[in-house]
């Protein structure tokens, strides 16, 4: 879903298991209130809620948010259109998520290799 040309503007996803809403906001360049709204609009987006209703997002949630962001902001879809696109192409989206995850891992490994060479 994310166009390769847009990957450069988003920060790399750290190798953590859970992310707070503030961290996800920074990683996806979307404000926290928008993330909370998207949770209501997109059934695929279900962060874990713990004490005090604090949200904890996993890596696949961050990738899904980046896909939603790309559909809405870069490709010009409406909320309804993006929801339909995501629900209609779930098998394709899974494949896209894996490809995005692999690209992200490659970038992180290349960065690590650069640090080790120094």
Automatic annotation (TrEMBL):
Q: Name one Pfam family in it.
A: MerR_1
Alphabetical UniProt keywords = DNA-binding
Recorded hits in CDD domains, A to Z, give:
HTH_MlrA-like_sg2 (cd04765)
Do you know which SUPFAM superfamilies this protein is assigned to?
Answer: Putative DNA-binding domain
Q: Which domain of life is it from?
A: Bacteria
The cross-references to InterPro entries, in alphabetical order and at most eight, read: DNA-bd_dom_put_sf, MerR-type_HTH_dom, MerR_fam
Where do the HTH merR-type domain residues begin and end? 18-88
Q: Which GO terms describe its molecular function?
A: DNA binding; DNA-binding transcription factor activity
Q: What is the protein's given name?
A: DNA-binding transcriptional MerR regulator
Q: Which organism is it from?
A: Litorivivens lipolytica
Taxonomic placement: Bacteria, Pseudomonadati, Pseudomonadota, Gammaproteobacteria, Litorivivens
């Amino acid at each position: 879903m994310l166009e390769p040309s847009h990957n450069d503007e988003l920060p790399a996803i750290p190798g953590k298991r859970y992310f707070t809403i503030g961290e996800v906001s920074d990683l996806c360049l979307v404000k926290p209130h928008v993330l909370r709204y998207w949770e209501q609009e997109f059934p695929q987006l279900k962060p874990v809620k713990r004490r005090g209703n604090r949200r904890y997002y996993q890596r696949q949630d961050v990738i899904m948010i980046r896909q939603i962001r790309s559909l809405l902001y870069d490709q010009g879809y409406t909320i309804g259109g993006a929801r339909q696109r995501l629900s209609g192409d779930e098998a394709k989206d899974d494949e896209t998520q894996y490809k995005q995850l692999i690209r992200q891992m490659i970038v992180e490994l290349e960065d690590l290799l650069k640090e080790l060479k120094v």
